[in-house]
Design brief:
185 residues; six-stranded mixed beta sheet; single chain; 34% strand; Rossmann fold; globular; alpha/beta; four-stranded antiparallel beta sheet
């Protein structure tokens, strides 16, 4: 375990090499799912946690892609969801009649993803699918259809590879478990 500020960062849950291997596999699955595209696939990166995953996925795909970004807030600086989802940044391009792939870092309660899927559907895309690097089902409050899943994980708060706590630790290459915030304990 390592102490970073007031956090105790535990062991590695998923190593960088396993993440990169799985991103390549997901890219192959996604390539196969879109054999013919009239326009580039729109990858919608859910900021900020999905930025590294989106970048690696975009580079691994062989089909043409365009990047778009949305941002929601439901955690703030806490390690549990507030239960309220707020759209902070909407898409700036038209999605009408486009194939869209929402890129999530983690599906936990399902509230943010469910909210975003409904919101993006109002833009009338041709298709709307979801890829998530991590799926943590233990806290699911809303069922979410995940079309492409990276890893199922147990009930841990995790950081690294874009995932954060209070905007910290996104830059870790591996995905680590946050054992206990020292302030809580």
């Amino acid at each position: 375990m390592t102490q970073v500020g007031d956090l105790i960062v535990g062991g590695i849950l998923i190593e960088d090499t396993a993440i990169q291997r799985r991103v390549e596999e997901l890219a192959a699955e996604i390539d196969a799912a879109y054999p013919v595209l009239e326009q580039p696939l729109v990858l919608i990166c859910v900021l900020k946690g999905s930025i590294l995953f989106t970048a690696d996925l975009a580079r691994a795909l062989t089909i043409p892609v365009e990047l778009e970004f949305v941002a929601c807030r439901s955690y703030g600086d806490a390690t549990t969801s507030s239960g309220t989802v707020e759209l902070v940044k909407d898409v700036s391009m038209t999605l009408r009649d486009r194939d869209v792939l929402m890129v999530e870092d983690i599906i936990d309660t399902g509230l943010t993803t469910s909210f975003l899927r409904k919101h993006l559907a109002t833009h009338h895309p041709r298709s709307l699918r979801l890829v998530s690097l991590l799926d943590k089902r233990s806290h699911r409050m809303r069922e979410v259809q995940i079309d492409f899943r990276g890893f199922d994980i147990p009930d841990h708060f995790v950081v690294g590879y874009g995932l954060d706590v209070a905007q910290r630790l996104r830059n870790l290459r591996d995905i680590h478990v946050v054992e206990v915030p020292l302030s809580a304990g």
